[in-house]
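Q: What would this chain look like folded?
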Amino acid sequence: MMPLKGLPEQVARQWQANLDDSQSMTCVATPDTEFGSMRLVEVSRGCPKACRFCAAGFIYRPFREHSTEQLRKEILGTGDEVGRVGLVAAAVSDYDDIAAVGRAVLDQGGEVSVSSV
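A: My prediction, written as structure tokens:
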């Protein structure tokens, strides 16, 4: 395989040191799927476990989390009904404040789901 003319042989890694500098929520418009009416929210990148069989702990190193306040602001601050919120990460249950984020969604009448990665 050869790179196209004018393009680098290797692509430089793009890395976000502070996840709060980037948006954690995305809108995926897929009405006929399980995630059709769900807001997907990234809570962290990478994985703190570094299992030898899994690439996520190595490729996205170091493990980083969005702050709880940033997640609350993005999820609850839209002015829309909270609805269904899907928390997404390689290791969602390792997010330090998962209970607080989940409680904030539930307190606003929303539903919480976690990714199965």
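Strands lie at 25-26, 38-42, 44-45, 64-65, 84-88, 111-114.
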